[in-house]
Amino acid sequence: VATVTVHNGSAAFVAFEVQEFSGVATTSPLATSVGTSNTGTAASSGSATSTIANELAVGFVAGHGNAQAITVTASGYTAQAQQTTTGTIATVKTAFKVLPTTGAQSFTGTFGTTMYWASGVAIFKPRS
Prior knowledge:
By secondary structure, the protein is an all-beta fold. It has strands at 30-44, 48-50, 55-64, 71-72, 78-79, 83-84, 90-99, 103-105, 108-124.
């Protein structure tokens, strides 16, 4: 992909990250996903189940209202650099891992002080 265009239908500020992965199915790649939101100092996506070995899990924790550091606490994930907007602050930290076996998967993170957060994990099928 050479260009990514994002259209935001409201006046909200967003932080986002674009990643490209190889080895993912090209037809109907999304196996499952889950997400949730709350307020506190720890975030959890909820549980999604991998059903095929070598699926790719991509998770995120996003916060609103301050630019504090987010620490990924989900085991085995490779974290990416945190992205933060200026002005009205929104921040996001993502990470990924290849799942060697099937089973329940969740994505978790922590931060120093209470904030409104959202977290999710998406599991993608491997290329056959």
